[in-house]
Structure formats: structure tokens, C-alpha cells
Amino acid sequence: MSPERYGHGLVLGKFYPPHAGHHHLVREAAARCARLTVLVCASSVESIPLADRIAWMREIHPEPHVRIVGVVDDIPVDTTDPAVWDAHMEVFRAAVPEPLDVVFSSEAYGEELGRRFGAQAVCVDPDRIAHPVSATAVRKDPVGCWDFLAPPVRAALTRRVVVLGAESTGTTTMANALAAHYGTAWVPEYGREFSAAKLAALGPGASWEDVAFASEEFPLIAARQQADEDAAARTAGPVLICDTDAFATTIWHERYLGFANPDVLAPKRQHLWLLTDHEDVPFEDDGLRDGEHLRPWMTDRFRSELACTGRPFITLTGPHEQRLATAVAAVDALLAADWGIADPLPERR
Hints:
With 349 residues, this protein is an alpha/beta fold. It has helices spanning 20-32, 50-60, 82-95, 110-117, 135-140, 151-157, 171-182, 190-201, 217-233, 246-257, 295-308, 320-336; strands at 6-13, 33-42, 66-72, 102-105, 120-123, 159-165, 186-187, 239-243, 272-276, 313-316. It has two domains: 6-140, HUPs (Rossmann fold, 3-Layer(aba) Sandwich); 158-336, Rossmann fold.
């Protein structure tokens, strides 16, 4: 016998953050309803904005008959108190005023929620058999729950680690090594690709000395670097390794043109910067480098700007093995630290 079908259904939750169990619930409900409303309820103490959760849910559930709406609900949680239920229902009905035929839930309160909406209650996978995960577990251990997170949530939560430094100081070598160590993705340096294309466009016989950069090119390079990073973060593991970033482009502009460009935007979406020192690394001219004499200046500029902009960083020194060990210790500490996801309103007992 096929499952009963309904007209207007409701799925309600915090989705803080949304995970595979939430999406299973929504898909089950969407498959059985002519139209489905998903109500995202956030409290003002929570650190993931309501707008972000709505955007994520809309991306993951784009079906035209699924409507994602949100509401701020700062009423304490107490499923045993009728007065608290009444207060919550006021918020819910203001957000979803249309009549409902069914309420889908995986929680014990689903029956009472359905009764108060005058709708049938359907429970979906209450024992979390299909997807053994909860939002509480994700908040407590994002790394351990990573496989249950969808691309837009991963992009928002992944710890982004940037390797940056002067020319020929081992940034790409370090980025590759860290990505291999953590089994994750890494983002190549777009500026190098851009530079190689400029040189190639000059034709046979051209050398790096013939290449000239225009100030307006650097905001484009920074924007592309950030876009590549954001795209990689959607499929990366809990840590994403970046071979340079938009911030580093500001220093490269100074290196080539001698002054800063305020149009090179460098948002702080990253969590840790690893500065590769120029000492102990011999300069290698690969056809796209000519700044051996500028390496000490660049290292100092990176260090100074990282400090004055409040970006957490460490400097990698010594041979490669020592640098890698230092970097791994720093990244491990980053992953073990508090991920900054605030607790929701506590449940009153």
C-alpha cells in the first residue's frame, strides 16, 4: 500500500545546523505533500544566522512545492508546559497562517504539534536509523559529523588554513603536504595561473622581465582566489588548505606596484595563516620569479600586516619536515578548539 498523500504539510525545526537527518525528513514530507512549508525557528542567542539557515535549506530543497520560511522564537523550551506551548504556537501561526493537513517530525513533540495545528502528525525515523546524527552532535563535534553535512553548510563551517609567503619559500609544497596529511582539498594560487597566462600571451621568446601588471588586475585576482576557495570549501573536509588568499594579494600588489590598492578586498573568512619564512629555503627561478632580493621585505610585510589586521598566524621556519610538524600541530589545535557555535536556548525541566 502506498503512503497516504496530503495537501499542505509542515516541517518545523531549528536546523542548527541542518544535517542529513533534517534533509531526510524534509524529503519524506515533500514526497507526500502537494505543498510543504519548512519553518526554520531560530533564537537570538544562536550564532548561526537565521538568514544563513534559510538560504542553505532553500539551496538543498529547491523543489517548487517546498517553501522555506523563518522566524525568530526566543520563548523558552518546555514541552510539558501548556502556557509555553501556547506562546510558541502564536509564533508558529504568525509565520505559517495557512491551514495544515499534516505535520512531519522526528521528535516526540510531533504529536502535540500536530494536534495544536489541527493536523495529522506523521513521525519519520525517530530512532535516527537512516541518519544517526543530531544537531546537538554536530555542534559538539563538527569533525566527527562532517559526512552528514551538505555542501553549503560545509562551506560555512570548514576551518580554512592559508599558507602564504614570499617567492620560492615553499608555500605550494606546504599546501600539498598539509592537504595530503589531512586527506582534504587544497586551493591553488590563482595569481600564478594568471601570471603564466600573461607571459604566454606575449608570445615565443618573451621572458618574465617583459610582463607588466596593472593595478586593476589585482582586485580580479583576489576575487577569483576567494571564489575558488569558497567553491572548494563546499566539498572539502573539516579543514581546507589554501595556497595563498585574497589577503596575500594585497601584499603582492605592493611588491609589484609599490603601493596599496584599496580595491583589493580581503574578507576574513579564514581561521589560520601559516607564514613560510624565507630562511632555509633556497631561491629557485622557475621562469615566473625574479624577487630573491625582495624575500626578506615580503616576509616582514606579511608578518606586519597579519599582526595589524588581527589574523591569527604562525611562522614556519627550518627544513620542510620541521615546518610540516609545526603546521600540523597548529592545524590540529585549530580543529580541536571551540568552533564558536553557541548553545541554543536550554530546555526547561
